[in-house]
Amino acid sequence: MQNHYKLIPSYFSPAGDDADIVGEINQRAFYLRADYTGDSLTSRIYNTESNSTVAAIYPSREGSYLAGNYINRIWLMNIEEDGDSLWSKFYGAEGYYYDCCSMVGDFNRYLVLAGTVWPQDDEGDPDVFLMMLDFEGDSLWYRSYDICEAENDKDICYSMVETFTGGNGFLLAGSTTSNDQDYFAWALRTNLDGDSLWSYQIGGALEDVPYNVEHNWDFFALTGGFIDNERGIINYGLVKLSYAGEFLSMRRYSSGRIAYATALSRASGNGFLLAGTTADGIWLLKVDQEGDSLWSLPINFGHDAFCSAITYTMYSGLALTGYTESPNNAFLVETTRDPETSVSNSHIQFPVEMSLYPVFPNPFNSTVTIPFAVGARRAVPLHLAIFDPLGRRVAELIPSQVMCAGLHSVVWDAKGVPAGGYVVRLEAGEAQIEQQIILAK
Q: By the 8 A CB rule, do 175 and 186 touch?
């Protein structure tokens, strides 16, 4: 049986140590919380008598919401911090199968689930669904979309993100097969009510599949496996679309073998981290905002390894998770943020100068935690502030202060500040580090 784990970019505990891992074990829904060393803190298996899986996790007042599939229905569970279930709810019409792939939310307002729905009698084509729930799990609305609008097309949804620039809403990404032959990658943007604003199709040559979507200030990024027509093999691909649905660029990255980018995360410096499956194992790649490759790192698990997700850790670098089929194991791997730098996992290593870690959550609704580290050699005052896109100072978080070596964090309360993009800037002497954040209201 396949053990399938998925690591969700973490909402860290106040100590900044924990990550949530969700998925399935032998077709049973699974939840695990691990610390930054990979040690298990708590784990649970749910729905032990029926097929189920967890596809996504989102924080709740009591602990977390888990969203996934139960037999052929959509399933939502609210759990406490220790993993104990508070309640479960199920959704879906009779005569249909549902496959939930993603969940996003807005604190104290709504949850949104996305995925694929298809008829059990095989007399219709699969479509994409989007549904909004309140925080008690009650349905607010449900939408379905026929992306290709052609006969014998199969629309599959793989990923979703919430959008803010140009109006709140959602961006979904997936693939469509036409007559069981060519694959079209697609992106669909909706407003906050689920009404379609635009859709865009990419490729259609043999097999173009986007597994993940992310957003930056200026564009959406889709990554997956895209055919290289000249070489006839599938490579990592990164497609950039504007917020209005206009095609901006497409880049392919070759490891020398067939490769699918199955995980995507925003990186420091406004770039992206890509990870996925190759003939030799997992290939980790970092690109800048323009899509230029900065570095790559092979991780040898064998040809049957699948990377589910990648995220920054609070301390020493990057965490990847996924599974291998031979042997049948799940994995959680920690690597350094910069592969050229050696970092031990046995203890925390402070930087020589200073580091600004990814803020969380991002995007955020009202408050955001900004973690940073001060190196042992740093003895000059630090300055931490928030700026708007025009360079105007919005908030002074640390005016000028000499801080001891180690990890620190500051919480910014953005009450009264308009929604939009902002810049976190950490300065010490002539050194300066910046990070983009998005305030959504």
A: yes
CATH architecture, domain defined by 3-336: 7 Propeller (2.130)
Q: Which residue has the higher pLDDT, 50 or 80?
A: 80
In the predicted structure, residue 346 carries a pLDDT above the cut 50: no
Rounded to an integer, what distance in angstroms lies between the CA atom of residue 136 and that of residue 279?
44
Q: Which residues contact residue 417 at a Cβ distance below 8 angstroms, ignoring those fewer than 6 apart? A: 394, 395, 439
Looking at domain 354-439, does it have CATH number 2.60.40.1930?
Answer: yes
CA distance 7 to 322: 8
* Nearest alpha-carbon partner for 331 in 343, 319, 345: 319
Residue 268's SS3 state is helix
Q: Do domains 3-336 and 354-439 have the same CATH topology?
A: no
Instruction: Report CA-CA distances (Å) from 422 to 200, 352, 410.
Output: 28, 27, 16
- 174 closest CA partner among 150, 155, 146, 197: 155
The larger pLDDT score, comparing residue 408 to residue 309, is at 309
Cβ-based burial of 180 (10 A; exposed 0-12, middle 13-18, buried ≥19): exposed
Helix (H, G, I), strand (E, B) or coil at 29: strand
Rounded CA gap, 426 and 433, in Å?
Answer: 5
More confidently predicted of 437 and 181: 437
pTM (two decimals): 0.76
Tell me the C-alpha distance between 336 and 316, whole Å.
6
Region of 232 (left: φ > 0; alpha: ψ -120 to 50; beta: rest) is left
Q: Residue range 127-141: average pLDDT?
A: 95
CB of 412 closer than 8 Å to CB of 367: yes
Instruction: Identify the CA nearest to 114 among candidates 84, 155, 61, 59.
Output: 155
What's the first-to-final CA gap in the chain, in angstroms? 43
Residue 215 in tokens: 């957003």
CA separation (Å) from 441 to 181, 213, 362, 379, 414?
43, 22, 13, 38, 10
